[in-house]
Every structure is written in structure tokens, then in C-alpha cells.
Amino acid sequence: MLNGLRIGLISIFLLVSGCTNQPVPKTIAESEITLFGNMKLWEIEQISPHLYAYRYTFYRNFFLIGEEGVILTDPLNQEAASILNQELSKITNKPIKYVAYSHSHWDHISGGQVFKDQGAQFVAHKKCQENWIDNPNPNVVKPDIVFEEEYTISVGEISLEMYYWGPSHDNCRVGLLIQPDRIMFIADDANPPNGLNMIYGAGLADTYIYNLVPFFLEAEKLAKHKRVKTIIGSHMSFQDNPMNLVSGTVGSSNVIKQQRLFYEYVIDTVQEALDDGITAKEVPDYLIQSGALKNKIVGYDESKMRVLYRRITNFLITGE
């Protein structure tokens, strides 16, 4: 009972404290093709004088335009990269100097050859490079620059800081910090408007669960130290329920803490069930039937939660 009250109070605090002024993205280019509803297949939004977000279907990257050139992030795929390349030429005549990879998953980082052909240097964490050596993809451009802990890319006064906090969602995901805007980006997680939203990939494939909470604690520390107020979402998300899809381009940096709490709540809830003598096989159904976290996770989905509970149970028993 006390634990449930604590979770509820934290959720209310995060909601209230997240209501700070945020930049209002302005659409400057969009597809003529509709994805669904009022959402276009792709769009480019300007967030600040030098910061832009590019959404293609449900995926999003961002790019920076500085005095010395352009910094791009995850190319997404060949078609998305081709469209972005065409639109970039309408926005700036600055050269594309760098492409920064957020992690190693092909669905985010394929298609960069069109930028490599223009002389761009590709930057990634060292473990991403190792992943592509072991499991190459012809559509993934190998990095020219690799790093282990931190790396900063600059194009004049505009820069992108890259931070590695250990394995999380794949073994080489990094947190990205845009300067001087003080805006963060964490691929595949922490999507506005709410980090307590039901996650899409409940199976947590290629996820190092043991370091998820520590990863987000480090992200929170960085956000506090660097006075970050805003985060860019790498995916579209939803408001209040999964049927109410929203762009989710920007949101409060409190989403980072909410995402950490999402994982923390699920791990702790499964551990409590095991400690109470519930067998591993029974844990998912037991927690579904008891309604655990039903009022805490936004867009709670029983089928996804059953998968998630099973995955976390396996982790807590095997360590994998």
C-alpha cells in the first residue's frame, strides 16, 4: 500500500514539474503523402535557429547547422536519408561534416552512404563498430571516428556531445546532448510526452536489463549538471492512450526520470512477486490478475505487460 502511494505521488510530482516552457517546433517541410490522420509520411521541424528534427514515419533524428557545416544523426534508412539529403539542400549550403550514430540498430542507422559520398565523417561508440564487424550490413556506413566514454563534435559554436554509460538498449547506445541548446536525445527510450508510457518492444530484445536503471541515473545526472530542460523523442508516442498518437518531437527532460522509473517499477514489482513465493512461471499471470502497475503505466496493455513480466522474470532468475 505504501509502495503504491509512493509511486502515485512520484507520478504526480513528475507531471507537475514537467510543465515547464518548452521550445515549439515549427514545421518547415513535409511530405505530400499522409501516414495516417493528419500525420504526414515525413516532416522537418525547426526547434531553434540551428537545430532541426526530421521525422520519417515513426522514427526521428535531428541535425545541427553551424558556421562550419552540418552535423547529422541517425540516417534511419536509405529512403529517409535520400529525402533528408534533398531537403537539406533547400535549407543550407553548408557541407555535411559529421554523422553521429546513437546506437547500432539497423532500423535507425542505415542509409548513410549518400552523406558519406559528400565527405561526411561518421562517429560512433567503439562497441558499435565491433558489432558491425561481427554482423555487417551493406547499408550501414562504418564509422571513421570511434570513442569509448565521451566525444564532442563541433561545427563552430554549435556542438553535439556524446556520452556512453554502459550497455542498455544494445551495448553501444549513447546519450546525445545538443549545445548550446541544452537538449538531450536518447534513442528508442525517453520519448515525450511521458516516459511512463507503455513501451513498444515489451520483449526488450537486445537490451541489457541489468544496466537500464544505472544508465538512466547517469542520464539524469548529466541533465541536472548541464541544466537540460528538454528532450527530443526518437519515436512518435501517444498522449494518455495508445490510440491517441502524437508527434512527440520535444518534451520535458523529466521524461528521462520517468523512463528510469518505468523500468525500476517493473523490475521491483517482479522481484517482490518472486520474494513472496510466486513461481517464475506464475509471475506474469499473477501480476496481470492482481492489476500491478495498471494505474501507473500510461496505456497499460495486458498482452505487452505479460511479455514484459516474463522477460524481467527471466532476467531476475538467470541474470540475462
TrEMBL record:
Residues 59-235 form the Metallo-beta-lactamase domain. It holds the Pfam family Lactamase_B. Signal peptide: none annotated. PANTHER family: METALLO BETA-LACTAMASE SUPERFAMILY LIPOPROTEIN (PTHR42951:SF22), METALLO-BETA-LACTAMASE DOMAIN-CONTAINING (PTHR42951). This is Metallo-beta-lactamase domain-containing protein.
